[in-house]
Amino acid sequence: MTSTPVTLLSFRSGQASDRPFSSSITQGQLALGFGAADPGLYFLDSANSVRKVGGSQYSATAPNSTPQGQVGNSVGELWADTAVNNYLRVWNGAAWIKVGAGFADNAGNAQTADTALSADECLGKIATTFTGALPPVGVAGSAAFNTATGAFYMSNGAAWVLI
Questions:
Q1: Are 92 and 115 in a shared domain?
Q2: Fewer C-beta within 10 Å: the chain N or C terminus?
Q3: What backbone torsions phi and psi does residue 142 show, to the nearest 5 degrees?
Q4: Residue-wise over 86-119: b if at least 16 C-beta within 10 A, else e?
Q5: What is the count of structural domains for the chain?
Q6: Which residues pair with 31 in a beta bridge?
Q7: 59 in a structural domain
């Protein structure tokens, strides 16, 4: 990495959802938004896209839904959607996409969805508990446990297999 000595100049704003415009900052320059509703650190990347660095927003409304500055969100930005089942969503550049919510979408079958914490706990796949009918088949390695019967199932990618 080559570097050039520069004087650091940063922008800052305390208004909610006040993101910098790409024309307002130069590549690598920092801008700080400290409004409590949507805080974050922003910079302009080498493709002239404003990127957000910071925690995910935890609310019923998406980040930057009522922008004071730049409209839109950063690719990879996270949002914990409290209005819809507390889904974790990620911005893909065009829309908010649910992360790991496959089983929880079928509310009649799924009661909880937990991600394993380590490689020896379900290999990081999504596990779910249910009563009644099995949830839709998950990706290979997904697990489901019927709390009423004590039956444990693993997905082979095409069907649930009773273990």
A1: no
A2: N
A3: -70, 150
A4: ebbbbbeeeebeeeebbbbeeeebbeebeeeeee
A5: 2
A6: 11, 42
A7: yes
DSSP character for 28?
Answer: T
Structure tokens at 41: 């650190």
More confident residue, 141 or 18: 18
CA neighbor of 144 nearest in space, from 127, 122, 123, 124 = 127
Q: What is d(CA 76, CA 52) in angstroms, rounded to the nearest whole number? A: 9
Using only C-alpha atoms, the chain has a radius of gyration, in whole angstroms, of: 21
* End-to-end Cα spacing for the chain: 52
Structure tokens at 80: 């914990």
Domain, as residue range, for 61? 11-98
Q: Tokens 């957000």 belong to which residue?
A: 52
Given a cut of 80, whether residue 40 has pLDDT beyond it is: yes
| Domain co-membership, 16 together with 92 | yes
Write down the pLDDT at residue 107.
46
